[in-house]
Amino acid sequence: MIKVENLRKTYQMGEVEVRALDGVSLSVERGEYVAIIGASGSGKSTLMHILGLLDVPDSGTFEIDGTDVTKFSENQLAAFRNRVMGFVFQQFNLLKRTSALENVGLPLIYARNGKKTDIADKMLDLVGLANRKSHHTNELSGGQQQRVAIARALVNSPSLIFADEPTGNLDSKSAKEIMEVMSELHASGLTIILVTHDADVANHAQRIIEIRDGKILSDAPNPHAPEVPQVETREVEEEGKGGFSLRTIREGLVLVKQSIRSLAANKVRTALSALGIMIGVAAVIATVAVGNGAKAAVEDQMSRLGSNLLMLMPQRRSRGGVAQAQGTVSRLSRDDAQAIREEVGHVVGVSSTVDGNVQLKVGNLNWSCRVTGVDPDYEFMRSYEPQLGRFFTDEEINSKAMVCLLGVTPVRELFGGENPVGKKVKMNRRTYTVIGVLPEKGSSGFQDYDDAAFVPVTTAMRRMFGRDYVERIEIQIDAPENMDRAQMDILALLAQRHRTASGSFEIRNLAEIQDAVSSTSRVMSLLLSSIASIALVVGGIGIMNIMLVSVTERTREIGLRKALGARGGDIMSQFLIEALVISFFGGCLGIALGTAVGYAAERFANMTVVFTQDSIYMAFGFSAIIGILFGIWPARKAARLNPIEALRYE
Ligand code: ADP
Ligand code: MG
């Protein structure tokens, strides 16, 4: 079954070369029970590790069932260790804080053949631990632990068992029991290769190979061997086909469960590294929410202005009240407004506008506020549909009617919040009838949009301020794409009407102001979220740090898993899953914290915050990517460890 020739293995210890194996040739047939004996340091373990495919020789040939295994890939070796071989070590090498049953089931995870844990169950029955299955391994005696290790070696029905000083750490009674188990296994058809320095232990075997200083001293049948009723020999099973199935999911869940367990074993450390991710994710969620809120607030304010608006006003060429040159002061009139309405295309609304401050008086209550004279179009252009009463009619404009609309602030101050429609109010000592209450527009900064009163523009011009010109004309255009065109047409029309250069008037496009403001808020929120992303990356580095520590700390465990048949990919996914679990928890907590911070900002700092589902998905995506990205390096480091060096690591 096994055939090796001329195996050599040399260790370099500083200046000294240690020839652990110096030309070993031997072959072992199926069903044999071989003991390798020799003094400590003679090379027994080295030989066993090479025979067990845990280590590679420097030179020599090695065949198993006629197959040259020296050319095997890492994964093929792992599969062989998993299916064909079972290992029993002197130090038991069981996973701590893990039940006997799960320890035994470990090789099944890596076998991928869908065998269930009932095999592990049966194996524990076989080694006489039926009543200790759910005990953690640290609650078992040395002899019991070694039985668990034997059960684990048997679980994938191997054809070869390697045991390196299996009784070395046991008292004589347990040692005797373990050797009985070994003999029974041999009797059931298993091939056993046992390494020991103890002649009594070796006497259980049928053949004894003695080595000294890396060379075979003698190789002979054991005259004291007990009689063994030979049963049929075991055959290696075919490797199960991999593929995605329910089983894959179940194995995945086992991996997740294992990683949660190992993270739970280091609660403080796990919590601290999840904290980094949590802060990062919370920062992203909160800043995105605040940024969106700021954007929404700006948009809201802008929508109060109305859309597609142009504001036409005379160009200011003078400073500090000095009269303009040649006395040709360009002033806008209501006729200009009328001409624009009639002659310029794409115009949907026009309002001449005049404003100033007045003293309002009701009974003995006084209130001074801004009064604006407007045309009826103003109602829909600026969305000023009255919440009570109605807006001006053309009739009232033509007759310069003594009517007004009030904002909620003067209504509160002068009427105590009661419905003022139909009541009288004095403005600059003339009496007006209130016909409506303006909708609430809120405030921005220092400006209270509700502290306002409207009168017909004609009334404001003639009766209130006594002038025949208007301050500006507001024009609404049907669609954004027609704004530029309309703007040019209006300027041309005015130049013609006033016989001046077209530079006498200027037009402001409110959409452009709107764009400028919202792009500023966009830059702000971009800045905030990039700072938040830096926090996330820092959190990721924290995870990587912890994972690297964890890999170093668990080197022996990694070695054991590899010895039991874990491939590089299995180890890699184990550590990646751990990194992912940390960042997942961190991400969840971060979403909660970020949301809380956002609401706190809304509640106590009076900010507008807008949470979107996108930012939640984004935070989750981010933390997953961070987990994978920063987990890959430690995971690869773990996956590349050599099994036997890892097992020796202290
Ligand atoms: P045994 O199991 O028979 O006690 P080993 O096979 O463990 O002996 O070791 C054989 C020789 O190789 C010893 O001299 C030991 O010091 C040396 N050796 C074993 N492993 C290493 C190693 N990783 N590095 C250096 N020397 C080693
Ligand atoms: Mg040894």
UniProtKB/TrEMBL annotation:
Residues 2-238 form the ABC transporter domain. Pfam families: ABC_tran, FtsX, MacB_PCD. PROSITE patterns: ABC_TRANSPORTER_1 (PS00211), ABC_TRANSPORTER_2 (PS50893). It is a multi-pass membrane protein. The chain crosses the membrane at residues 271-294, 526-551, 571-596, 616-635. Belongs to the ABC-4 integral membrane protein family. Belongs to the ABC transporter superfamily. Macrolide exporter (TC 3.A.1.122) family. This is ABC transporter permease. It comes from Pontiella agarivorans. Its main location: membrane. It comes from the Bacteria. Keywords: Antibiotic resistance, ATP-binding, Cell inner membrane, Cell membrane, Membrane, Nucleotide-binding, Transmembrane, Transmembrane helix, Transport. It is found in: Cell inner membrane.
